[in-house]
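Hi L.,

As promised, Wzz/FepE/Etk N-terminal domain-containing protein:
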Amino acid sequence: MSDDTIRLVTIGRILRRRRRLLTVLTVVGALVGYGVSALFPPRYTASASVLLPGQWEERELLTQVEIATSSAVVDRAATALGWTGVDGGELRERVSAQAADGNIITVSGTADTPERAQRLSDRVARELVAFAARVSGDSAESEAVKGAEALRRKVVETNRRISDLARAADPGRTVESVQARTSLAKLRTSLEEAMKKLERADPASGRAGMVVMGPAARPTAEAPPTRVQLIAAGALLFFLLTVVGHLAAARVNRRLRTEPEIAAALGSTLLGTVDVPGERGAHRPGGRGARARVRRLLGIDTRWDLPAPRSSGGEADRRIRYRRVWSRLQDRLSGSRRLLVVVVDGDEIARRAAGRLVAEAGTDTAGGDPVPRVVEVSVDRPMVPDRDAESGALVVLSAGSWTAGELAGVAGACADGGHEVVGIVLAGAVRARTARSADGPSDSRPPDGDTPALAVHGRASGHATGEPV
C-alpha cells in the first residue's frame, strides 16, 4: 500500500475495520471540545446600524469604521457604561465595525449576556455619532463659516473698487467710457448673484450628521463558536486525525506484498500460493493481560490494510493447489525427503497452511519417508534448529505481513542452521463457502482422514523439538 494511490476503498476499509477505534476517539474528541467550551464562557453579539447621509467615498467609510473602534470612541463608551473591572482596552477587543451597502456602518458589541451586548453596541453607536458631530462642528463647519465670511468681505471690497472705477471713467463723453461703465455694472450684478447663492448654500456641502438607525436587537443565540460547535469540531478533528494517521501509517508501511519482492528477500524461488479458509481471528495475534484486552476491545489487534479474502473455489481446488506445490517441491529436493517447514511466529495463516501442507505430504509418503517438520521462528531473534537429516527448508508465510529486513533475518537464521531455503510458499485467506450440499456438510471442511498433522512447534531453541504427531 505504500506505493498505491489512496482510494475511496481504502477509506471505506478503515471505517469498516476500525469502527470501534474511530467511535471511541470521536467520543474523546467530543469530550475535549466540551472541556474547551467550559473554559470559555458563552458570548453574545448585538449589532447597531449608523447611517451616513449624503455622498461618501469608500475611503471615507473606511475611516469612519476605524473611528468606531478607536479609543476616542470606545473609551467614552466604557466611561458611560461604568462596568466594574471593564476598561476601554478590554472593550476594544469586544467591539468591531464594518461598512455595509448604502452608507451604513454596522457596530457590533460582544458581551457575556444579551443585555450587556445590546447596551454595548448601542452606546458605541451613539458615541460614534457624537464624536463625528464634535469633529464636524469643531473643524468642518467652523472652517466653512470662516471661509464664507472672508469671501463676503472680498466681494464687498470688490464692489467698492468697481464703484471707484465707474466714477473715475468719463461719464457719457466717449463710447469707450460708456462701454467700460456697462461692463463694470454687469460684473457687479454677477457678484451680487453669486453672493446670494453662497448664502443659500449649506456650509457643510450637504453632509448631514450621522444617525443611529434604532436600538440594537437583543441577541437570542450565542456567538460562534458555541458549545455545540466546539463539541462537533473536537469530534470531527479526532475522527479526521485517526483516519489520516492510518493513511500515513499505510504510506510508510514497508511490508512486502508482491511475490518478486518476497522471493528476493528470502533469496529463493516461489513455488506457488495456497488458500486457507478464513476464520475469525485468523490475523488476530495471541496475548493476555490488560493491554491485549484493550486492543481486542478497540479492534486494533488485527490488520486493517489486508485485502478482503477472495472467494474459495472449494475444498477440491484447495487440495489441488497443495498437491501441486508439494510436487514442485519434490522436484527440488535431493536424497532424503526430510524437510524443515519454517513459519514466522504470529503468522496464523501461514501456520495453518504449513499444517495442511504437512498433511498432504503425509498422504504422499508411501515409501515410508519421514513427514516434514514444522518450526516457528521469531522475527525479533530468529533461530532455526541445526540441520539433522533435512534436505532443506521451506518457508511458508502470508503476503503483506513482514518487511524485507525481517525476511532476510529468517533466511539468515536458516543459513546459520545449515539449511538451504529450497522454496517459498505464500498462503492467502479465502472465504469458505458455507452452503451445505444435500448429502453432507459444507465443503469448507477437509474430508475424513485429511486432518492436518502438525509437528510440535519449535521455538528459538536451536534444537529439534519433536516428531510428527
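The mean pLDDT is 79.

Thanks again for sending the construct details.

K.
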